[in-house]
Amino acid sequence: xxxxxxxxxxxxxxxxxxxxxxxxxxxxxxxxxxxxxxxxxxxxxxxxxxxxxxxxxxxxxxxxxxxxxxxxxxxxxxxxxxxxxxxxxxxxxxxxxxxxxxxxxxxxxxxxxxxxxxxxxxxxxxxxxxxxxxxxxxxxxxxxxxxxxxxxxxxxxxxxxxxxxxxxxxxxxxxxxxxxxxxxxxxxxxxxxxxxxxxxxxxxxxxxxxxxxxxxxxxxxxxxxxxxxxxxxxxxxxxxxxxxxxxxxxxxxxxxxxxxxxxxxxxxxxxxxxxxxxxxxxxxxxxxxxxxxxxxxxxxxxxxxxxxxxxxxxxxxxxxxxxxxxxxxxxxxxxxxxxxxxxxxxxxxxxxxxxxxxxxxxxxxxxxxxxxxxxxxxxxxxxxxxxxxxxxxxxxxxxxxxxxxxxxxxxxxxxxxxxxxxxxxxxxxxxxxxxxxxxxxxxxxxxxxxxxxxxxxxxxxxxxxxxxxxxxxxxxxxxxxxxxxxxxxxxxxxxxxxxxxxxxxxxxxxxxxxxxxxxxxxxxxxxxxxxxxxxxxxxxxxxxxxxx
Length: 548
Hints:
Radius of gyration: 23 Å
CATH class: Mainly Beta
Number of strands: 30
Number of domains: 1
CATH superfamily: TonB-dependent receptor, beta-barrel domain
Helix content: under 10%
Number of helices: 4
Strand content: over 45%
CATH topology: Maltoporin, Chain A
C-alpha cells in the first residue's frame, strides 16, 4: 500500500468584540485541573503531568484526540490501520488502553465494562481549555483503571464580549471539516458553543476500496456565577459517527456500516467560602451506542455510566493541604450477544500535600473502593519534589500502587458457537506498582525534563485455554515489567517569536506488549503579529503492539 500523508488547508473568519490580533498577551504557565482534581499550579504536585493548551491544538490543527498527544512523552495514541474512524487505543508508560482512564468535564468515560476503542476513535477536541495527561499510577484520586495514567480535558466558556467564528478546512482524501462557534460573557453568565462536521475518504487502496468516515458534533458549556463564592457549570459534548467500508479478498467483497453515538452531560458546582476551603461537586452521565452492520451479521452495544464525585481541598496550615472526597459510579453495559453487566463502585480518597520548608513538597495519599461484584481495593502513593530556585532545578520522585478490577464479562460463564468461556469466581483485581524519578532544569528561555519510570504489573488478567473449545480468564502468576525514559524540552530559539517543543520516549522493558523502542516528536512555531507559521515532525520505531 502506498502511504500518503494528509495535508490540510484551513480558512477561519471571526466577528465580534475582543482583543485585537496584534495586541501582546501575557503568557502564563497553564494550571492543572486533574493533578489534584481541583485547579492548582503545576509545581504544587509531584505527579508527572503533561499539558497541551487549546491554543496549541488549534495552531497545529489537531482536533481529534488520537492525533493530539504526541508532544507529551510516554504517551502514544493509535488508530487501527492508521485510518480515521477506526477504533483507537492509547498507551501510557508501556501499558495499553485497559489501564488508562479518560475524564471529560469531571466525568469518567472509561471503566471495565466497555473498552475505550470507540471513544478514542471518535473523540474530538473542539472548544476545550487544555488537554492533560497524568502519567503513572493514579488510582488514589481516580480509582480503578488508572494504572498507566489519566487523560483529561474540559469544555471551555468565553470571557468578555461575545465572539463568533466560522472555520473550514479541507485537504487530501476528500477530507474537510467545518463548524460554527460562539462564546462570551453576559454579566454573571458565560457560555461557549460549537457545532460542526467532518468527513474523510481516508487513504484507500485496492483491497480496501471504500473507507468513508463522517462525523457531526456539538460542544456546549454554560456557566453561572450564582454568588461570590458559588459557581455552576453545565456542559454537553456529543458526536454522531458513521463509517462505511468495502473490502475485498479471496472470499469476495464485504461491506460494512458502523454507527456510533456518544454523549456526555456534566454539571459542576464549585464553592469557595474562604481561602482555606474549596469544594467541587460533579455529577453526570456518559452514554455510548454502537451499531455495526457487517452484511452477514449485526452487532451492537449500549453503555451508560453515571458518576458523582465530591472533592474538597482543605488548607490546614501555611504548609499543609489535604485533598479528599467521595465518589460513586453506576455502570450498565449490554450487547447483542445477550451479555449484560451492571457495576456499582463507591469509594473515598485523601491526599496530603506538605511543605516543611518552601523548597520541599511531600505528598502521600490513599483510597479505598468497594465494588458490588469483586469487593474492596486499596491504592496508595508517596512522593517528594525539591526545588533549587536559584539554579532553576526541580528534582522529584514518586511511588504509587493502582489497581484494575475485573468485570462479570471476565468472570462469568458465556457460551458461544466457537468457544465457551468458563466461569472463574476467584478472579482478582490486577495490581500496578510504579515508581519514577526525574529532574527538570531551566536554562534561560529553555526548560528540559528527564524522567525514568518503572512499573510492575501483578496478577495480570489473561485468557487461558484449559481444553479444546473452551477459554477462561485467569490471574497470571508473577509480575510483568515496563520501564523507560521520558525527555521533554521547550523554549525560545534566537527570538521570542520562534518557539519549539520536543518529546522523546525510550522504552526499555516491554513485558506487557511489544512497543516502539523510541518515539520522538518536534514542533516549531513562529508567531509575528497576527501571523503564525509552524510545522512538526514525528518518528515512531517499529513495534507489533502484541503481548510478548
